[in-house]
Amino acid sequence: MRTQVGIVGAGPAGLLLSHLLHREGIESVVLEMRSRAYIEKRVRAGVLEHGTVETLRAAGVGERLSREGLIHQGIELRFGGRRHRIAFEELVPGRAITVYGQQEVVKDLVAARLASGGDIRFEVDDVALTAIDSERPSVKFRAAGERESIECDFIAGCDGFHGVSRDAIPAGARTHFEREYPFAWLGILARVAPSADELIYAYGDRGFALHSMRSPEVSRFYLQVGADAQLESWPDDRIWAELRARLETVPGFSLAAGPILEKNITAMRSFVVEPMQFGRLYLAGDAAHIVPPTGAKGLNLAVADVRVLTRALADWYARGDASGLAQYSATCLRRVWRAQHFSYWMTTLLHPFDSDDAYARRLQLSQLEYVVSSRAAATSLAENYVGWEP
Ligand SMILES: Cc1cc2nc3c(=O)[nH]c(=O)nc-3n(C[C@H](O)[C@H](O)[C@H](O)COP(=O)(O)OP(=O)(O)OC[C@H]3O[C@@H](n4cnc5c(N)ncnc54)[C@H](O)[C@@H]3O)c2cc1C
Fold it and tell me: CA 153, CA 130: separation in Å to the nearest integer?
């Protein structure tokens, strides 16, 4: 079997890459270890940057996003018993974020690929990359018990943080940069109308809480919990009580509760591998970098990588121009490191650390006060949040 680009992973990165390549006349095969039903239900990100929305629209997969996505012109920072709005329409006019679930993006992309005859192999296992430093790399895998192999011109490793692609790069040819945080996020999805029109980032002594949403009927909440927290210790009543304690801290705000549809605990980690390429293998999305979700950047970075990789592959196939491919990692890393810093900054700004002393808490509060009272500081937050273009 042969294809032009072998893509490992049908998350947002792999699916969008396959779709954009198809529009450039370049064929690909996508290999995914999970089932279609599983990836279409996996609840994760939901905040799309301005540029991400533009990319999806320009690629012809923005129709439902335009209809159902919720456009937000600001976010709220809540601390010290007060609410403070970061107003995108004033600070970064013309740019906003759109709330639209990652699983909806995945559904739209799978539907678009299959409608145009795209080749996505679900439920494959034992994926292995070989000869990535040659001109004929291949991906070996097992499907329905049979061993198969696809020879490619290029391989795109879009298989997320726990995938196999990154490790196909020899250890001596890559460097990892990472940070772990001494807490995690307990996330819930609840069938209840959001209690506010915009996202609320709440800082307080009990810990951080985020009020978010997925639709006019479904809310999303996160609570900062211990790094070793277990879901068994967080029955629904305890979750709602803690959310109230952390969010009902300003006059006139009351939190509406409803049936919890899903609960999960997410570790908070920052990670980058450099370079994001080796031979004919190119990593995109979480396979190359992850951020704590506080800045809502992970999905958006995956889309940004894919834009760069599509352009580079299109130039190579159209004109034999390899300059974009040679520069792929360096081009992506400029944006990746900006998002790394922003995500780290938002995380350390908004989460009290157990190790903090009184001095460290005062510094956090001082920084929060500065962000909400200085137009320059608020603009910096806003332009990073809606997506900074290097
Ligand atoms: C709880 C949570 C909340 C988040 N919130 C946000 C947010 O608000 N905003 C934001 O921008 N980001 C957010 N993120 C991050 C975002 O979800 C990821 O950055 C995004 O999924 C990255 O897309 P990807 O395609 O690179 O990787 P993934 O979505 O991880 O896709 C990788 C795919 O590869 C498949 N795969 C893995 N290993 C193999 C293998 N060996 N063989 C074949 N297939 C394989 C996986 O099954 C998966 O389908 C959040 C993440 C979590 C967990």
Answer: 12
- pTM: predicted TM-score of the whole model, two decimal places: 0.96
Q: Ligand 1 within 6 A of 268 CB? A: no
Residues recognised as catalytic: 72, 201, 293, 297, 385
Largest CA distance in the chain: 64
Locate tokens 């699916």: which residue?
15
Residue nearest to atom 2 of ligand 1 (CA): 44
- 292 C-beta closer than 6 A to ligand 1: no
257-270 burial: b if 16+ Cβ within 10 Å, else e: beebeeeebeebeb
The residue among 269, 378, 388, 290 whose CA lies nearest residue 338 is 388
For residue 362, how far is its CA from the centre of ligand 1 (angstroms)?
Answer: 35
Task: Tell me the best of 110, 124, 299 to mutate to test the pocket of ligand 1, counting ligand atoms within 8 Å of each CB and taking the most.
Answer: 299
Q: Which atom of ligand 1 is nearest to the CA of 141?
A: 42
User: Is any atom of ligand 1 closer than 6 Å to the C-beta of 48?
Assistant: no
| Residue located nearest, by CA, to atom 27 of ligand 1 | 160
Per-residue pLDDT tens digits of the chain, which is 390 residues long: 999 999 999 999 999 999 999 999 999 999 999 999 999 999 888 999 999 999 999 999 999 999 999 999 999 999 999 999 999 999 999 999 999 999 999 999 999 999 999 999 999 999 999 999 999 999 999 999 999 999 999 999 999 999 999 999 999 999 999 999 999 999 999 999 999 999 999 999 999 999 999 999 999 999 999 999 999 999 999 999 999 999 999 999 999 999 999 999 999 999 999 999 999 999 999 999 999 999 999 999 999 999 999 999 999 999 999 999 999 999 999 999 999 999 999 999 999 998 889 999 999 999 999 999 999 999 999 999 999 987
CA–CA separation, 117 vs 113, rounded Å?
A: 6
